[in-house]
Structure formats: C-alpha cells, structure tokens
C-alpha cells in the first residue's frame, strides 16, 4: 500500500486541506467561464456572446457591458439561439451560445445536431446549471442527460471543467480551436483546486492524486468530492488515485488504461445519469482492454428533485462518505 500523493500544479491550499481541515475558496464554473470569455473577447474581436434570456445567470453581464455590440439576447427561443449562432459562424465569427443545459442542448438538440455538428460550424454551446448541483430549482432544471446527448454527436467536443479556473481556460481554448464544442457548467460554487499555471489541454486528463488500490476517475466539479472520498479511504488504509477528465470527448483513453492498469477497482464519478455519460465513455474505453472491475457512480436512471446540492448528492449516493463506503465494500 502506497501513501496517496497530491499531484503538482494544484493550489497550495489543497495540500493544506488534505493534511488538515482548511476551508478552500469557492467559485462557480459559470463565473470562471464569464471571466474567461471576457478575456478571450479582448484578444479576438470575432468572439460573439449569445444568450436566450439568461445572460445574468450564465455570467455574461461583464461581457454585455464591455462589448454591447457583440452581445445578442434572442429571448426565450433556444432554437433561434443556435440558428443565429450558426449564421454568425458561417460569416467567420466565433459565437458562444449560452443557456441552461436543460434548454440547450435539452430543448434545441435537433438544431445543434443538424446546423452545428452536421455542418461542422465552430459554435460553442454552453450549458450552465447542469446536474444535481442546480439544487432547489428541481428536476425540470437539473440536466442529467446532456452529456449523453452531446457525446453522441459526431465531431462534437464535450468539456466539463472541475473548477472556475479551469472553466476560464476551457472557453479560451475552445475559442482558439474553432470546432463544434459543448461546455458544461454548474450553478453552485465549488472549491478552487487549480491555478492559472496548472496545465490544461483539451483531450488530456489531469492527475490529482496518486494512489495504488483504487482508481477514481471523475469529471467536472465532482473532482473535489472524489478527493474527499480518497481522504476517507486513506483513513481506512486504502490508497486511491484520482484523475480528472476535463474532456469527456475525445476521452483520454491512455489515461483511463494507465489508471486502471495496476488498480484493484476502477470507479467513475459524475453528476449525470450513469447511462450514456462519462462512466459509459470509460466503460467503452476499458472494453477494448479489460482491466480491473468497474464501478460507475452517478445518478442511476432517475430524474432529480428539489433540495440543496448536499442533500441531493447524499440521497443519490454521491457524497464522499457513501462513495468511500461503496468503494471499500468493492475492495473487500
């Protein structure tokens, strides 16, 4: 058994938290996105921000004030949101179309499929307020199927940043790449784990913790929960590695296989339905070269409901204590 070791490149406060009881600074990934988009717009005057009556909720207020001529609100019309974005893209602009994930891609998926993916237009679709982390807004506003919708589209990149700092990098990289992209964001403020100097490459996983007994593979803001579970496992004398996949598609299959190679159990953790989501992508990768048993943890073919994120995570078995308990049972 090897003692878990935090990866280099994380904020110093993370190490202090791991070894003690330090409270980490928090920010929402949507906030990081808003800051990153504003920075990208300063560098490239072809960047256009669009929204469907949700500019404030998707953190576009700063953009709207700074660049009013490059800000478009189409109203409550998500199909038009995509149509206008595609029109702009066809004229050489770089449109970033924002809404809640239940509305985009939830409501306008056919428009995204035909006009963006099939036409290979460089539109960045931003779905905020995804997952159980949306909390009190309830089932109608908790997107738990959006990754499966977008992962199935040919040529569509799917990104899910772990914190606000990575969200800022994700939008900056997406603008530079100029390909059909889906960027998944959350409403809730979550711990800041990375910093500006932390490497970020689309398609490449980020190791957070080195361990030997179990490999926890996670995506999005569940990364901190994965670290919490690893900390509890170490108290039970189990050594866990944690790897964050900020890109769900294309998946870093090498990182999946490397993490699974010497582990007794592979665990996937996501704030999404386990059907068709990140766990399914990992299962597909492991099917090519079977390794350790796979335990997929997420929402199990259910809709959400109202409650705080903490309450909902606990009910669905996505709190650190339940995760650690299930992993311990699997290892035993």
Describe the fold and architecture.
The protein is an alpha/beta fold. The chain has two domains: 5-24 and 198-331, Rossmann fold; 27-191, Thiamin diphosphate (ThDP)-binding fold, Pyr/PP domains (Rossmann fold), CATH 3.40.50.970. It is 37% helix and 20% strand. The protein has twelve helices and 15 strands. The protein has helices spanning 12-19, 29-43, 61-66, 78-90, 109-117, 146-151, 164-177, 223-235, 253-261, 278-288, 309-315, 320-331; strands at residues 5-6, 26-28, 47-51, 71-73, 94-100, 124-128, 157-159, 181-184, 189-191, 206-210, 214-218, 240-244, 247-249, 265-273, 294-299. The strands form three sheets. It has a seven-stranded mixed β-sheet with strand order 4-3-5-6-8-7-13, with helices on both faces. Helix 8 links the parallel strand 11 and strand 12. Helix 2 (29-43) packs parallel to helix 7. The radius of gyration is 19 Å and the shape is globular. The two termini are 15 Å apart. 53% of the residues are buried.
Descriptors:
Rossmann fold, seven-stranded mixed sheet, alpha/beta, 2 domains
